[in-house]
Protein backbone atom coordinates (compact mmCIF):
# COMPACT_ATOMS: atom_id res chain seq x y z
CA UNK A 1 0.00 0.00 0.00
CA UNK A 2 3.02 2.34 0.25
CA UNK A 3 4.50 3.86 -2.88
CA UNK A 4 2.26 1.76 -5.12
CA UNK A 5 -0.64 3.83 -3.82
CA UNK A 6 0.98 6.99 -5.06
CA UNK A 7 1.68 8.26 -1.54
CA UNK A 8 4.21 11.06 -1.61
CA UNK A 9 7.21 10.74 0.71
CA UNK A 10 7.03 13.03 3.71
CA UNK A 11 10.42 14.52 2.92
CA UNK A 12 9.75 15.56 -0.68
CA UNK A 13 11.41 18.93 -1.01
CA UNK A 14 9.82 20.75 -3.93
CA UNK A 15 6.52 21.63 -5.46
CA UNK A 16 5.77 22.86 -8.92
CA UNK A 17 6.50 26.58 -9.37
CA UNK A 18 2.96 27.20 -10.56
CA UNK A 19 1.53 25.69 -7.41
CA UNK A 20 3.74 27.85 -5.21
CA UNK A 21 2.87 30.93 -7.19
CA UNK A 22 -0.83 30.18 -6.75
CA UNK A 23 -0.31 30.16 -2.99
CA UNK A 24 1.63 33.38 -3.21
CA UNK A 25 4.34 31.89 -1.01
CA UNK A 26 7.14 31.11 -3.42
CA UNK A 27 9.59 33.16 -5.47
CA UNK A 28 8.10 35.49 -8.00
CA UNK A 29 9.20 35.52 -11.60
CA UNK A 30 10.07 39.18 -10.92
CA UNK A 31 11.49 39.19 -7.38
CA UNK A 32 11.46 42.98 -7.02
CA UNK A 33 7.97 43.42 -8.34
CA UNK A 34 5.83 45.60 -6.10
CA UNK A 35 2.71 43.93 -7.48
CA UNK A 36 3.85 40.46 -6.44
CA UNK A 37 4.79 41.65 -2.96
CA UNK A 38 1.41 43.32 -2.58
CA UNK A 39 -0.38 40.13 -3.57
CA UNK A 40 1.59 38.15 -1.03
CA UNK A 41 0.76 40.65 1.70
CA UNK A 42 -2.92 40.48 0.80
CA UNK A 43 -2.89 36.69 0.94
CA UNK A 44 -1.12 36.67 4.28
CA UNK A 45 -3.61 39.26 5.53
CA UNK A 46 -6.52 37.08 4.46
CA UNK A 47 -4.88 34.11 6.18
CA UNK A 48 -4.53 36.04 9.45
CA UNK A 49 -8.05 37.40 9.20
CA UNK A 50 -9.51 33.94 8.64
CA UNK A 51 -7.55 32.47 11.55
CA UNK A 52 -8.51 35.21 14.00
CA UNK A 53 -12.14 35.76 12.92
CA UNK A 54 -13.65 33.36 15.52
CA UNK A 55 -11.65 35.09 18.26
CA UNK A 56 -12.92 38.48 17.09
CA UNK A 57 -16.48 37.12 17.19
CA UNK A 58 -15.90 35.76 20.69
CA UNK A 59 -14.55 39.10 21.90
CA UNK A 60 -17.62 40.88 20.53
CA UNK A 61 -19.92 38.35 22.23
CA UNK A 62 -18.00 38.85 25.47
CA UNK A 63 -18.19 42.66 25.28
CA UNK A 64 -21.98 42.63 24.76
CA UNK A 65 -22.38 39.74 27.24
CA UNK A 66 -24.16 37.34 24.88
CA UNK A 67 -24.33 33.86 26.47
CA UNK A 68 -22.77 31.03 24.48
CA UNK A 69 -24.86 27.87 24.47
CA UNK A 70 -28.35 26.81 25.42
CA UNK A 71 -29.98 29.09 28.02
CA UNK A 72 -31.51 27.43 31.08
CA UNK A 73 -29.66 24.22 30.29
CA UNK A 74 -26.01 24.66 29.39
CA UNK A 75 -23.95 27.72 28.60
CA UNK A 76 -20.23 28.33 28.47
CA UNK A 77 -19.62 31.29 30.76
CA UNK A 78 -17.07 34.02 30.39
CA UNK A 79 -14.48 34.12 33.15
CA UNK A 80 -15.07 36.57 36.00
CA UNK A 81 -11.27 37.03 36.10
CA UNK A 82 -10.57 38.00 32.49
CA UNK A 83 -7.92 40.68 33.27
CA UNK A 84 -6.03 38.23 35.50
CA UNK A 85 -6.38 35.47 32.91
CA UNK A 86 -5.00 37.78 30.23
CA UNK A 87 -1.98 38.51 32.43
CA UNK A 88 -1.39 34.81 33.02
CA UNK A 89 -1.85 34.13 29.35
CA UNK A 90 1.19 36.32 28.71
CA UNK A 91 3.30 33.60 30.33
CA UNK A 92 2.15 31.12 27.70
CA UNK A 93 2.76 33.66 24.95
CA UNK A 94 6.25 34.28 26.27
CA UNK A 95 7.06 30.58 26.25
CA UNK A 96 5.60 30.25 22.79
CA UNK A 97 7.51 33.25 21.49
CA UNK A 98 10.82 31.69 22.51
CA UNK A 99 9.90 28.43 20.79
CA UNK A 100 8.64 30.23 17.67
CA UNK A 101 11.81 32.30 17.38
CA UNK A 102 14.01 29.22 17.52
CA UNK A 103 11.78 27.32 15.10
CA UNK A 104 11.67 30.23 12.65
CA UNK A 105 15.44 30.68 12.64
CA UNK A 106 15.95 26.98 12.08
CA UNK A 107 13.40 26.73 9.28
CA UNK A 108 15.00 29.66 7.47
CA UNK A 109 18.01 27.42 6.88
CA UNK A 110 16.59 23.92 6.78
CA UNK A 111 13.38 21.93 6.63
CA UNK A 112 14.30 19.97 9.77
CA UNK A 113 14.34 21.23 13.34
CA UNK A 114 17.57 19.59 14.39
CA UNK A 115 18.45 18.40 17.86
CA UNK A 116 19.08 21.76 19.50
CA UNK A 117 16.07 23.60 18.11
CA UNK A 118 13.88 20.56 18.71
CA UNK A 119 14.97 20.42 22.35
CA UNK A 120 14.17 24.11 22.88
CA UNK A 121 10.81 23.75 21.14
CA UNK A 122 10.04 20.67 23.23
CA UNK A 123 10.96 22.49 26.43
CA UNK A 124 8.69 25.42 25.48
CA UNK A 125 5.84 23.03 24.71
CA UNK A 126 6.35 21.32 28.07
CA UNK A 127 6.08 24.75 29.65
CA UNK A 128 2.76 25.28 27.87
CA UNK A 129 1.44 21.98 29.24
CA UNK A 130 2.47 22.95 32.78
CA UNK A 131 1.02 26.42 32.25
CA UNK A 132 -2.33 24.92 31.21
CA UNK A 133 -2.57 23.28 34.62
CA UNK A 134 -1.43 26.20 36.79
CA UNK A 135 -2.65 29.02 34.55
CA UNK A 136 -6.20 29.44 35.93
CA UNK A 137 -6.31 32.17 38.63
CA UNK A 138 -7.48 29.74 41.32
CA UNK A 139 -6.10 26.59 39.75
CA UNK A 140 -6.06 24.24 42.76
CA UNK A 141 -9.58 25.14 43.86
CA UNK A 142 -10.82 25.00 40.28
CA UNK A 143 -9.32 21.59 39.53
CA UNK A 144 -10.52 20.04 42.77
CA UNK A 145 -13.96 21.52 42.16
CA UNK A 146 -14.12 20.02 38.67
CA UNK A 147 -12.80 16.69 39.89
CA UNK A 148 -15.39 16.47 42.66
CA UNK A 149 -18.39 17.94 40.83
CA UNK A 150 -21.04 15.44 39.67
CA UNK A 151 -21.73 17.51 36.56
CA UNK A 152 -18.10 17.38 35.42
CA UNK A 153 -15.35 14.77 35.48
CA UNK A 154 -15.80 14.68 39.23
CA UNK A 155 -18.73 12.36 38.56
CA UNK A 156 -16.19 9.58 38.01
CA UNK A 157 -14.33 10.50 41.18
CA UNK A 158 -17.54 10.37 43.21
CA UNK A 159 -18.62 7.15 41.52
CA UNK A 160 -15.28 5.54 42.40
CA UNK A 161 -16.43 5.42 46.02
CA UNK A 162 -18.56 2.45 44.97
CA UNK A 163 -15.52 0.52 43.74
CA UNK A 164 -14.54 -2.08 46.33
CA UNK A 165 -12.70 -4.13 43.73
CA UNK A 166 -12.28 -3.62 40.00
CA UNK A 167 -13.69 -7.03 39.13
CA UNK A 168 -16.77 -6.62 41.31
CA UNK A 169 -17.48 -3.12 40.04
CA UNK A 170 -17.15 -3.72 36.29
CA UNK A 171 -18.94 -7.08 36.32
CA UNK A 172 -21.73 -6.45 38.81
CA UNK A 173 -21.93 -2.98 40.36
CA UNK A 174 -21.64 -0.89 37.20
CA UNK A 175 -24.37 -2.77 35.26
CA UNK A 176 -26.70 -2.16 38.20
CA UNK A 177 -25.72 1.50 38.52
CA UNK A 178 -26.32 1.89 34.77
CA UNK A 179 -30.03 1.30 35.36
CA UNK A 180 -30.38 4.40 37.56
CA UNK A 181 -31.81 7.70 36.34
CA UNK A 182 -29.69 10.83 35.76
CA UNK A 183 -31.41 12.52 38.72
CA UNK A 184 -30.27 9.71 41.01
CA UNK A 185 -26.72 9.96 39.64
CA UNK A 186 -26.79 13.78 39.83
CA UNK A 187 -25.83 13.92 36.16
CA UNK A 188 -25.38 11.94 32.96
CA UNK A 189 -21.60 11.55 32.91
CA UNK A 190 -21.32 8.09 34.50
CA UNK A 191 -24.35 6.77 32.58
CA UNK A 192 -22.88 7.90 29.26
CA UNK A 193 -19.43 6.32 29.59
CA UNK A 194 -17.86 2.92 30.20
CA UNK A 195 -16.45 2.44 33.71
CA UNK A 196 -12.78 2.86 32.78
CA UNK A 197 -12.52 6.43 34.07
CA UNK A 198 -14.21 5.43 37.32
CA UNK A 199 -11.72 2.60 37.74
CA UNK A 200 -8.82 5.00 37.12
CA UNK A 201 -10.15 7.33 39.83
CA UNK A 202 -10.50 4.40 42.25
CA UNK A 203 -6.93 3.29 41.57
CA UNK A 204 -5.70 6.86 42.09
CA UNK A 205 -7.49 7.04 45.43
CA UNK A 206 -6.01 3.73 46.53
CA UNK A 207 -2.55 4.83 45.43
CA UNK A 208 -2.75 8.09 47.37
CA UNK A 209 -4.16 6.34 50.43
CA UNK A 210 -1.44 3.68 50.52
CA UNK A 211 1.57 5.74 49.40
CA UNK A 212 2.44 8.20 52.14
CA UNK A 213 5.19 9.90 50.14
CA UNK A 214 2.88 10.67 47.22
CA UNK A 215 0.12 11.82 49.55
CA UNK A 216 2.49 14.09 51.49
CA UNK A 217 3.83 15.62 48.27
CA UNK A 218 0.36 16.34 46.91
CA UNK A 219 -0.89 17.77 50.21
CA UNK A 220 2.12 20.05 50.65
CA UNK A 221 2.44 21.09 47.00
CA UNK A 222 -1.19 22.11 46.61
CA UNK A 223 -1.85 23.48 50.09
CA UNK A 224 -4.24 20.74 51.16
CA UNK A 225 -2.93 20.80 54.73
CA UNK A 226 -5.63 23.33 55.56
CA UNK A 227 -8.18 20.51 55.38
CA UNK A 228 -8.59 19.10 58.87
CA UNK A 229 -10.14 15.77 57.91
CA UNK A 230 -7.42 13.29 56.77
CA UNK A 231 -9.90 11.45 54.56
CA UNK A 232 -10.81 14.72 52.86
CA UNK A 233 -7.13 15.44 52.24
CA UNK A 234 -6.81 12.03 50.62
CA UNK A 235 -9.89 12.67 48.50
CA UNK A 236 -8.65 16.03 47.27
CA UNK A 237 -5.13 14.70 46.68
CA UNK A 238 -6.51 11.81 44.61
CA UNK A 239 -8.63 14.23 42.58
CA UNK A 240 -5.57 16.34 41.82
CA UNK A 241 -3.56 13.25 40.90
CA UNK A 242 -6.20 12.28 38.34
CA UNK A 243 -6.17 15.84 36.99
CA UNK A 244 -2.37 15.69 36.66
CA UNK A 245 -2.54 12.35 34.85
CA UNK A 246 -5.13 13.66 32.40
CA UNK A 247 -3.03 16.74 31.70
CA UNK A 248 0.00 14.55 31.05
CA UNK A 249 -1.98 12.31 28.69
CA UNK A 250 -3.17 15.34 26.75
CA UNK A 251 0.29 16.87 26.58
CA UNK A 252 2.08 13.70 25.48
CA UNK A 253 -0.41 13.13 22.66
CA UNK A 254 1.33 15.79 20.56
CA UNK A 255 4.21 13.35 19.98
CA UNK A 256 1.79 10.87 18.41
CA UNK A 257 0.22 13.65 16.35
CA UNK A 258 3.69 14.64 15.10
CA UNK A 259 4.56 11.08 14.09
CA UNK A 260 1.19 10.68 12.39
CA UNK A 261 1.59 13.86 10.35
CA UNK A 262 5.15 12.92 9.38
CA UNK A 263 3.82 9.94 7.42
CA UNK A 264 2.85 12.41 4.69
CA UNK A 265 4.10 15.90 5.59
CA UNK A 266 7.51 17.60 5.81
CA UNK A 267 8.59 18.69 9.32
CA UNK A 268 7.33 22.33 9.22
CA UNK A 269 3.84 21.30 8.14
CA UNK A 270 3.78 18.31 10.48
CA UNK A 271 4.71 20.58 13.36
CA UNK A 272 1.89 23.07 12.87
CA UNK A 273 -0.79 20.45 12.13
CA UNK A 274 0.26 18.25 15.07
CA UNK A 275 0.28 21.24 17.42
CA UNK A 276 -3.18 22.34 16.23
CA UNK A 277 -4.57 18.83 16.73
CA UNK A 278 -3.70 19.01 20.43
CA UNK A 279 -3.40 22.68 21.34
CA UNK A 280 -6.63 24.37 20.29
CA UNK A 281 -9.29 26.40 22.14
CA UNK A 282 -11.53 23.39 22.80
CA UNK A 283 -8.84 21.10 24.24
CA UNK A 284 -7.05 23.79 26.25
CA UNK A 285 -10.26 25.15 27.79
CA UNK A 286 -11.20 21.62 28.91
CA UNK A 287 -7.76 20.65 30.23
CA UNK A 288 -7.41 18.88 32.59
CA UNK A 289 -10.31 16.71 31.54
CA UNK A 290 -11.25 13.34 30.13
CA UNK A 291 -12.16 14.67 26.69
CA UNK A 292 -8.78 16.30 26.10
CA UNK A 293 -6.92 13.35 27.63
CA UNK A 294 -8.66 11.01 25.19
CA UNK A 295 -6.55 12.52 22.41
CA UNK A 296 -3.78 10.15 23.56
CA UNK A 297 -5.86 7.10 22.63
CA UNK A 298 -7.34 8.76 19.53
CA UNK A 299 -3.97 9.68 18.05
CA UNK A 300 -2.43 6.33 19.00
CA UNK A 301 -5.24 4.54 17.13
CA UNK A 302 -4.89 6.81 14.09
CA UNK A 303 -1.11 6.44 14.04
CA UNK A 304 -1.07 2.65 14.28
CA UNK A 305 -3.83 2.23 11.71
CA UNK A 306 -2.24 4.59 9.20
CA UNK A 307 1.14 2.92 9.62
CA UNK A 308 -0.52 -0.43 8.97
CA UNK A 309 -2.27 0.98 5.92
CA UNK A 310 0.69 2.81 4.36
CA UNK A 311 3.39 0.26 5.20
CA UNK A 312 1.26 -2.91 4.95
CA UNK A 313 2.58 -4.09 8.31
CA UNK A 314 0.18 -6.32 10.21
CA UNK A 315 1.77 -5.60 13.57
CA UNK A 316 0.57 -2.01 13.40
CA UNK A 317 -2.93 -3.19 12.60
CA UNK A 318 -2.77 -5.55 15.58
CA UNK A 319 -1.71 -2.65 17.82
CA UNK A 320 -4.51 -0.45 16.45
CA UNK A 321 -7.12 -3.08 17.26
CA UNK A 322 -5.75 -3.57 20.75
CA UNK A 323 -5.78 0.17 21.35
CA UNK A 324 -9.39 0.46 20.19
CA UNK A 325 -10.44 -2.29 22.59
CA UNK A 326 -8.55 -0.69 25.48
CA UNK A 327 -9.91 2.76 24.62
CA UNK A 328 -13.53 1.54 24.71
CA UNK A 329 -13.00 0.89 28.40
CA UNK A 330 -12.83 4.67 28.80
CA UNK A 331 -15.08 6.14 26.09
CA UNK A 332 -17.24 5.00 23.20
CA UNK A 333 -16.06 7.90 21.06
CA UNK A 334 -13.09 5.73 20.12
CA UNK A 335 -15.44 3.39 18.29
CA UNK A 336 -16.46 6.31 16.09
CA UNK A 337 -12.82 7.26 15.56
CA UNK A 338 -12.03 3.70 14.50
CA UNK A 339 -15.06 3.62 12.21
CA UNK A 340 -13.89 6.82 10.50
CA UNK A 341 -10.29 5.76 9.88
CA UNK A 342 -11.22 2.21 8.92
CA UNK A 343 -14.00 3.39 6.59
CA UNK A 344 -11.87 6.07 4.96
CA UNK A 345 -8.96 3.73 4.27
CA UNK A 346 -11.25 0.99 2.98
CA UNK A 347 -12.86 3.50 0.63
CA UNK A 348 -9.40 4.61 -0.44
CA UNK A 349 -8.25 1.05 -1.09
CA UNK A 350 -11.07 0.61 -3.60
CA UNK A 351 -10.00 3.80 -5.34
CA UNK A 352 -6.37 2.78 -5.95
CA UNK A 353 -4.58 0.15 -7.96
CA UNK A 354 -4.44 -2.19 -5.00
CA UNK A 355 -7.48 -4.32 -4.16
CA UNK A 356 -9.24 -4.18 -0.82
CA UNK A 357 -7.53 -7.44 0.12
CA UNK A 358 -4.43 -5.52 1.15
CA UNK A 359 -6.51 -3.44 3.57
CA UNK A 360 -8.07 -6.64 4.90
CA UNK A 361 -4.80 -8.49 5.45
CA UNK A 362 -2.69 -5.63 6.83
CA UNK A 363 -5.32 -3.71 8.78
CA UNK A 364 -8.66 -5.35 9.44
CA UNK A 365 -7.75 -8.94 10.34
CA UNK A 366 -4.79 -7.98 12.58
CA UNK A 367 -6.95 -5.31 14.25
CA UNK A 368 -9.65 -7.85 15.06
CA UNK A 369 -6.99 -10.14 16.51
CA UNK A 370 -5.53 -7.33 18.61
CA UNK A 371 -8.94 -6.33 19.91
CA UNK A 372 -9.76 -9.93 20.83
CA UNK A 373 -6.50 -10.27 22.77
CA UNK A 374 -7.19 -7.15 24.84
CA UNK A 375 -10.81 -8.21 25.40
CA UNK A 376 -9.67 -11.64 26.53
CA UNK A 377 -7.11 -10.18 28.94
CA UNK A 378 -9.69 -7.86 30.50
CA UNK A 379 -12.12 -10.74 30.90
CA UNK A 380 -9.54 -13.07 32.49
CA UNK A 381 -7.95 -10.45 34.78
CA UNK A 382 -10.97 -8.38 35.84
CA UNK A 383 -13.99 -10.43 34.68
CA UNK A 384 -14.72 -7.44 32.45
CA UNK A 385 -16.59 -8.15 29.22
CA UNK A 386 -15.79 -4.94 27.38
CA UNK A 387 -18.02 -5.83 24.41
CA UNK A 388 -21.11 -6.29 26.58
CA UNK A 389 -20.25 -3.18 28.59
CA UNK A 390 -19.88 -1.06 25.46
CA UNK A 391 -23.21 -2.35 24.13
CA UNK A 392 -25.04 -1.56 27.38
CA UNK A 393 -23.51 1.90 27.65
CA UNK A 394 -24.40 2.62 24.02
CA UNK A 395 -28.04 1.78 24.67
CA UNK A 396 -28.12 3.81 27.87
CA UNK A 397 -26.42 6.76 26.20
CA UNK A 398 -29.23 7.13 23.71
CA UNK A 399 -31.83 6.98 26.49
CA UNK A 400 -30.27 9.63 28.73
CA UNK A 401 -29.27 12.00 25.90
CA UNK A 402 -32.51 11.90 23.88
CA UNK A 403 -34.31 14.60 25.94
CA UNK A 404 -31.43 17.01 25.31
CA UNK A 405 -31.82 16.59 21.56
CA UNK A 406 -35.59 16.76 21.27
CA UNK A 407 -36.68 19.21 23.99
CA UNK A 408 -36.80 21.66 22.31
CA UNK A 409 -35.42 20.55 18.96
CA UNK A 410 -34.47 24.00 17.71
CA UNK A 411 -31.73 24.23 20.35
CA UNK A 412 -30.02 21.45 18.40
CA UNK A 413 -28.78 24.16 16.06
CA UNK A 414 -26.68 25.84 18.75
CA UNK A 415 -24.09 23.05 18.97
CA UNK A 416 -22.43 23.50 15.58
CA UNK A 417 -21.74 27.25 15.87
CA UNK A 418 -20.27 26.62 19.32
CA UNK A 419 -17.90 23.99 17.91
CA UNK A 420 -16.86 26.28 15.06
CA UNK A 421 -16.06 28.96 17.62
CA UNK A 422 -13.77 26.59 19.56
CA UNK A 423 -12.18 24.50 16.79
CA UNK A 424 -9.16 26.74 16.35
CA UNK A 425 -7.45 29.00 13.79
CA UNK A 426 -5.82 26.32 11.62
CA UNK A 427 -9.24 24.95 10.71
CA UNK A 428 -10.49 28.36 9.59
CA UNK A 429 -7.25 29.18 7.81
CA UNK A 430 -7.62 26.02 5.74
CA UNK A 431 -11.31 26.60 5.05
CA UNK A 432 -10.94 30.22 3.94
CA UNK A 433 -7.38 31.10 2.96
CA UNK A 434 -5.17 28.10 2.15
CA UNK A 435 -5.38 27.14 -1.50
CA UNK A 436 -3.37 25.03 -3.93
CA UNK A 437 -4.94 21.59 -4.19
CA UNK A 438 -2.87 18.46 -4.76
CA UNK A 439 -4.09 15.72 -7.08
CA UNK A 440 -2.51 12.47 -5.98
CA UNK A 441 -3.31 9.40 -3.91
CA UNK A 442 -2.45 11.04 -0.59
CA UNK A 443 -4.72 13.98 -1.34
CA UNK A 444 -7.47 11.51 -2.22
CA UNK A 445 -6.94 9.79 1.12
CA UNK A 446 -7.23 13.15 2.88
CA UNK A 447 -10.44 13.95 1.05
CA UNK A 448 -11.94 10.58 1.97
CA UNK A 449 -10.85 10.95 5.60
CA UNK A 450 -12.44 14.39 5.70
CA UNK A 451 -15.70 13.27 4.08
CA UNK A 452 -16.00 10.22 6.35
CA UNK A 453 -15.38 12.37 9.41
CA UNK A 454 -18.01 14.90 8.39
CA UNK A 455 -20.56 12.13 7.70
CA UNK A 456 -20.01 10.68 11.17
CA UNK A 457 -20.21 14.12 12.79
CA UNK A 458 -23.49 14.87 11.02
CA UNK A 459 -24.91 11.59 12.32
CA UNK A 460 -23.77 12.00 15.92
CA UNK A 461 -24.83 15.65 15.86
CA UNK A 462 -28.47 14.66 15.57
CA UNK A 463 -28.31 11.50 17.68
CA UNK A 464 -26.03 12.51 20.55
CA UNK A 465 -25.46 15.38 22.98
CA UNK A 466 -25.13 18.23 20.53
CA UNK A 467 -25.27 21.03 23.11
CA UNK A 468 -21.64 20.42 24.11
CA UNK A 469 -19.92 19.91 20.78
CA UNK A 470 -16.82 21.97 21.73
CA UNK A 471 -16.06 19.42 24.45
CA UNK A 472 -17.44 16.23 22.91
CA UNK A 473 -15.92 16.77 19.48
CA UNK A 474 -12.33 17.29 20.68
CA UNK A 475 -11.41 13.74 19.53
CA UNK A 476 -12.57 14.51 15.98
CA UNK A 477 -10.44 17.62 15.50
CA UNK A 478 -7.28 15.69 14.42
CA UNK A 479 -9.13 13.91 11.63
CA UNK A 480 -10.65 17.16 10.37
CA UNK A 481 -7.33 19.02 10.35
CA UNK A 482 -5.28 16.18 8.87
CA UNK A 483 -7.89 15.34 6.26
CA UNK A 484 -7.90 18.97 5.11
CA UNK A 485 -4.11 19.34 5.22
CA UNK A 486 -3.37 16.31 3.05
CA UNK A 487 -5.14 18.05 0.17
CA UNK A 488 -3.05 21.25 0.25
CA UNK A 489 0.40 21.91 -1.23
CA UNK A 490 1.35 24.07 1.74
CA UNK A 491 1.30 21.05 4.04
CA UNK A 492 2.59 18.46 1.59
CA UNK A 493 5.74 19.93 0.06
CA UNK A 494 8.71 21.66 1.58
CA UNK A 495 9.61 25.15 0.38
CA UNK A 496 11.13 28.19 2.10
CA UNK A 497 7.92 30.16 1.62
CA UNK A 498 5.86 27.28 2.96
CA UNK A 499 8.00 27.14 6.10
CA UNK A 500 7.41 30.82 6.76
CA UNK A 501 3.66 30.41 6.47
CA UNK A 502 3.76 27.33 8.72
CA UNK A 503 5.55 29.33 11.43
CA UNK A 504 2.92 32.07 11.04
CA UNK A 505 0.14 29.50 11.41
CA UNK A 506 1.89 28.09 14.46
CA UNK A 507 1.99 31.56 16.01
CA UNK A 508 -1.68 32.13 15.21
CA UNK A 509 -2.65 28.78 16.71
CA UNK A 510 -0.83 29.64 19.91
CA UNK A 511 -1.98 33.24 20.20
CA UNK A 512 -5.63 32.69 19.35
CA UNK A 513 -5.88 29.66 21.65
CA UNK A 514 -4.37 31.52 24.61
CA UNK A 515 -6.57 34.56 23.98
CA UNK A 516 -9.64 32.31 23.73
CA UNK A 517 -8.68 30.62 27.01
CA UNK A 518 -8.28 34.04 28.66
CA UNK A 519 -11.96 34.83 28.14
CA UNK A 520 -13.64 31.59 29.11
CA UNK A 521 -14.89 29.77 32.20
CA UNK A 522 -16.39 26.87 30.29
CA UNK A 523 -17.15 24.68 33.30
CA UNK A 524 -18.53 27.55 35.42
CA UNK A 525 -15.95 26.66 38.07
CA UNK A 526 -14.68 30.19 38.63
CA UNK A 527 -18.19 31.61 38.59
CA UNK A 528 -19.44 29.11 41.15
CA UNK A 529 -16.41 29.45 43.40
CA UNK A 530 -16.55 33.26 43.32
CA UNK A 531 -20.32 33.47 43.86
CA UNK A 532 -20.66 30.61 46.34
CA UNK A 533 -23.26 28.84 44.17
CA UNK A 534 -21.37 25.60 44.48
CA UNK A 535 -23.40 22.45 43.83
CA UNK A 536 -26.78 23.67 42.60
Short recap of the structure:
The protein has 536 residues and is mainly alpha-helical. Helices cover 71% and strands 2% of the residues. The chain has two domains: 3-148 and 240-531, no CATH class; 154-239, no CATH class.
Written description of the protein model:
It is a single chain. The relative contact order is 0.16. It contains 27 helices and three strands. The chain folds into two domains: 3-148 and 240-531, no CATH class; 154-239, no CATH class. Helix 11 (230-262) runs antiparallel to helix 12 and helix 15 (295-311) packs antiparallel against helix 16 (314-327). The protein starts with 16 loop residues before the first helix and ends in a 5-residue tail after the last helix. Strand 1 (68-70) and strand 2 (74-78) form a beta hairpin. The chain has a three-stranded antiparallel beta sheet with strand order 1-2-3. It has helices spanning 17-23, 34-63, 82-109, 114-134, 139-146, 154-159, 166-177, 182-185, 196-210, 212-221, 230-262, 267-278, 281-285, 290-293, 295-311, 314-327, 333-350, 356-382, 386-406, 415-422, 425-432, 441-463, 469-472, 477-485, 489-492, 496-519, 525-531; strands at residues 68-70, 74-78, 520-521. It has 536 residues and is an all-alpha fold. Residues 1-29 have low confidence and may be disordered.
Task: Produce the secondary structure layout.
Elements: H1 17-23, H2 34-63, E1 68-70, E2 74-78, H3 82-109, H4 114-134, H5 139-146, H6 154-159, H7 166-177, H8 182-185, H9 196-210, H10 212-221, H11 230-262, H12 267-278, H13 281-285, H14 290-293, H15 295-311, H16 314-327, H17 333-350, H18 356-382, H19 386-406, H20 415-422, H21 425-432, H22 441-463, H23 469-472, H24 477-485, H25 489-492, H26 496-519, E3 520-521, H27 525-531
Antiparallel strand pairs: 1-2, 2-3
Helix pairs in contact: 2-21, 2-26, 3-4, 3-26, 4-11, 9-11, 11-12, 11-15, 12-24, 12-26, 15-16, 15-17, 16-18, 17-18, 17-22, 21-24, 22-24
Amino acid sequence: MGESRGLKPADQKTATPSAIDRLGMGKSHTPHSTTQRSKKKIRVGVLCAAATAPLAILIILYLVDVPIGQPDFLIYRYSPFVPLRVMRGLVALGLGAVGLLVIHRRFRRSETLGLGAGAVAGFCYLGLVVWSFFGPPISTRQHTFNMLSPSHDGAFMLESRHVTSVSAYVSTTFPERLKLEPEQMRGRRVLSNPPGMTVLCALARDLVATTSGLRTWLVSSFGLGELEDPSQRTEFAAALLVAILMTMAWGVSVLLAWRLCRIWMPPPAALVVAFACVFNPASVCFTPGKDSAQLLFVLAILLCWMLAFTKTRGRYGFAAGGLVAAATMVGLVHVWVFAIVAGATLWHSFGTDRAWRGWLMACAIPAVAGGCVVALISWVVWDWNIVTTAYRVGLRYGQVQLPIITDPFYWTLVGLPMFLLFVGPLFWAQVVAVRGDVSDSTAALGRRLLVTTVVVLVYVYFFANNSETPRLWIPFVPMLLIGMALRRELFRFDHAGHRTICVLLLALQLGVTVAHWSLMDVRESEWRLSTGRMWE
